[in-house]
Amino acid sequence: MSRSVSIAIFLTIATALSLLVHRYLWLRLVRDLGLTAPWRQLATGTLALLCVGLFVGPFASRAFGGQAASFGAAGAFAWLGMMFLVVMALGGVDLLKLGFGAWQRWFPGAPSMGVDPALDAAIDTAIDTAIDTERRLFFQRALSGGAAAGAVLAGGAGIRGATRAPKVARVDVHLARLPKALDGFRIVQISDLHVSATIRRGYVDQVVALANACKPDLVALTGDFMDGSVDMLRDDMAPIAGLESTHGSYFCTGNHEYYSGVEPWLTELRRLGVVVLRNERVRIADDPESGHGFDIAGIDDFMSARFGGGHGPDLPKALHQRDPNRAVVLLAHQPKAIHEATDLDVDLVLSGHTHGGQIWPFGYIVRLVQPYVAGLHTHRRGKRSSQIYVSRGTGYWGPPMRIGAQHEVTLLTLRHLATAA
Question: What are the tens digits of pLDDT across the range 41-71?
């Protein structure tokens, strides 16, 4: 299937879904709430504009660029997040109403709640009086309006959380094969930065400053750093050249690099002083006398094979002729790399991709396709085990919003296993 056909199918499905969702919002927030002129016309027009803006904003930012287009994209993506939260809230109200109605139909003689007879009698009385049209409309407005208002407030808090500077997440990782001389080795991980029309140079400057303040020995960049071409985002990505560490910055591709033109971006990252690991391994912190050190490896993202050009994950190639006495830290964008990594005796995998769910409850959906969503875990397969750390992401994708998933710059301190004992 050609790329143009895939885009056409995606746009058709997205347009249909958007129309259905906005129709649902109109039914629940305009028709069912009994809005009268001029509020009915104003609300209808607003929903129509938001529906159109959902598509116009992002495409305008790619086509024209500039500050105005960036604001348009930010507004469109913010509405996307708000829309999801409002639909979830209203859907929850509808499910409660359906459940209560079913309870009344299936158990007409049973207490309404099965808690306390006096309370049940009071509830039954309230329901009887609510049959009156005006009272029913009042309850409808209170339930639906309250749910929508609560969702909007949650969305506002999520926008504030996503657009401020990320936190530094500090994690100790104990590795049996780490040389004692390297106990305390500091790795800063930055993942899923998603530089785009809504994440610009000022935010990247903040991230670089946070990373440098950690005084890392090495910086691990685990993919999905950009959403746009090199020509669009070169200036916004420029601060990456300012990352400071003893042993340099190392990068593995994520899926979004392939959507944004992977080869030009890999060239640009190398120009910025980043070492790109494409199914490769590098020796780190070797002592000239003792040979003490460990290996860092990186593989292409799992999506990359679809794009041809020799791209595709190949962990056996990255680990070919490795020294079994040396620890290996693997950069792999998607957490599901842990399965093969454990089979091949990798000590630690650093991943991202999940954003920690970004907006609750997406984390539960992510668990259907990825073994881990966030944090440090020990993964066991048979007699082997490996550790994995999954970053919650340093930026965001789509809606400038985070709810229940704090974004982070991660400081991983490697510890010799004897230190734990």
Answer: 999 999 999 888 887 766 665 555 566 667 7
Please report the pLDDT score of residue 369 as a whole number. Answer: 94
Domains annotated for the chain, with CATH where assigned, are: 3-161 (no CATH), 166-420 (3.60.21.10)
Contact 190, 219 (CB under 8 A): yes
Query: Count of CB atoms within 10 A of residue 48's CB?
Result: 12
HSE (CB half, 13 Å, CA atoms) of 381? 13
Closest C-alpha among 295, 187, 193, 301 to residue 255 = 301
Helices and strands in the chain, H and E counts: 13, 12
Q: Edge-to-edge, what's the strand order for the sheet holding 384-390?
A: 280-284, 294-298, 328-331, 348-351, 384-390, 375-381
Give yes or no for a contact between 359 and 162, defined as CB atoms under 8 angstroms apart.
Answer: no
The tokens for 186 are 């500091």
Angle 172-352-13 from CA coordinates, rounded to 5°: 160
Task: Say which residues have a Cβ less than 8 Å from residue 298's Cβ, sequence separation at least 6.
Answer: 250, 251, 252, 276, 277, 278, 279, 280, 318, 330, 331, 332
250 SS3 class: strand
- Planar angle of CA 355, 394, 339, nearest 5 degrees: 45
pLDDT classification of 289: cutoffs 50, 70, 90: low
Distance CA 142, CA 139 (A): 5
Q: What is the pTM of this model?
A: 0.85
